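Entry 14. Ran structure prediction on the chain below.
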Amino acid sequence: MKPNLFARWGWGWGFVAAAALLVGCGGGGQEGIAPTSFAVLQVDGWVQPASADQGVSNVKSRSALAAAPVPSIVSLGALEEAKISTLGGGIGPRQVGVARDVAATQAASQTLQQFRWTSIPGGGQVAAISFSAEGAHGLRLGVVVRKLPPGAVLRVYSQADAASVFQIAGHEVMQRIERNAQAGDTTIDGQTWWSPDLGSDEVTLELELPAGVAPEAVDIAVPRVSHIFENLSIPTEGELTAKINESASCQLDASCYEAYANQRNAVARMIFTSGGGTYVCTGTLLNDAQSSGTPYFLTANHCISTQTEASSLQTDWFYRAPTCNSRTLSSATTKRLNGAALLYATDATDTALLKLNDTPPAGAFFAGWDASAQTMGASVVGLHHPRGDLLKVSIGALSSLTSCTATSGTQFQCVGSSGNFYRVNWSQGTTEGGSSGSALFKGGTQVIGTLYGGSASCTAVSSPEFYGRFDVAYNAALKNWLSSATPQSPSSGARVPVYRFFNGTTGAHFFTTSAAERDNTIANFPVFNYEGIAFYAQAALQSGNSAVYRFYGLTGGAHFYTINPEERDSVQRSNPDFQLEGIAWYAMPSAAGGGIPVYRFYRLSKGVHFYTTSPSERDFIQTSMPDYRYEGVAYYAWANQ
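Output, structure tokens:
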């Protein structure tokens, strides 16, 4: 058979010669791998119930925060048309943003000069910088963070909508950068936290430091931004004919096909940044054999193949028309902004499996899948976001198997009638750049593949498209996460998240494994700043682990945690001000269980303890905060479930 050559995607993807299993962060083994006694080959989908733990929103009302500081101004001119004239097209991830250097905040010393510090109640300080770029449809700030103190908070908002603020703890930012490093990326990309895209040509970065921290101890810079040059929002009805990212005329509105009502709720538009460029792809939420609600997310390796790219991910759910061909955006559309852990990536089937850091919204569908051999000629359906547009559907059939290999950064060829890919021919609809990574559904029900690329278009609907085979990727690795014959329960030693709060007044931490206690603290105790998941612990006593006990200080309101029964007994005997509240969780007294150390400090002036699993946070405290006395490793927990 004569080789066929197809355009692949519109950016320089780095070809990976072999499959890569990636650990999201720290610990031993691969993140989230379930014990498997035999592989389950088919799983049905299920709907995320409204009662599911929806996590914590990072979007805050300014009325609930201190008054916004007056920012310094950094302005970039218009982007040269020549820099984007060759971008945004082609097959694969659609490039929608380009990197731009920012001279005024290139280095930490320059960024520090831009900050104008204002004192806030409690003794802390806050400052902000406003970045703008003429003509931008959005900006992602590339914030390089090397040193941040415990209790630091970053906020992102636009001056045009300053009442709505994205807030993230500095601790969470450092965790993500450390995850990138643990996955092997110690470059400037790996040290960068990309702020969410707000769809504005101006974005303000606000930094709050706790009491007792000198700004000079902070190492933070914004050497570049990603300038979004395509309009990723939905314009008004009058602007529709001139919409920049309107997909091709033969695309079919997925809202017109009620037969796929569940499956379309599994699909999300992806926006991510790589090397300063921002791209659009499509991904699909997957169920596992336990219907555990773990947010496994399937896309293409040529979309996301590194942990650093995964860390930058934001997803748009229910990004479609509310009614058939209404060409308006559904009010149910929901954003998730906190990235993902990359579990597995391979070029062999162009597959990437991620675990989202955020809980999917209520109503999202965990798609079923079929990892058995498929019959050629079977009807198939694709659900995708061509050019980042509203959700579309393509309908066709499996034509044959084939073998595909990359021939350059933007090309691949497929030959023969056997191999790791499906050849698909559409009878209705097509795909475009931005559709990459979208799932292929057998009969519109179960996932059997992910989109690699092809040459189909409105003028060549019958030209083939190529999808990586889910069954091949499943047998190679995906079954390690998606298949388990013996579901875990808390009594079997499953790991649970430990949520962390920081009290800026006392400098102490509060930890809990209870989502209800977490939410109550957020709602009713504003002095405690929520800082996300600190680590994972076990919910029950198992061989080798030990109980971690929780105390409450009746006078100061601080909590104390210890794994040492002798220390527990000593506190009860000699310090009646501390009330034992029972067992908080279970952890390991040594590193034998493959865990990560939980470092413990004692704050001399306040008489409280501070705990962290972050080596960079530990080092910052030791070098810049002499009031904290290092007490060593308290115990060992885990970096993942």
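Confidence is low (pLDDT under 50) at residues 1-37, 236-245, 485-492. Will compare against last week's run tomorrow.
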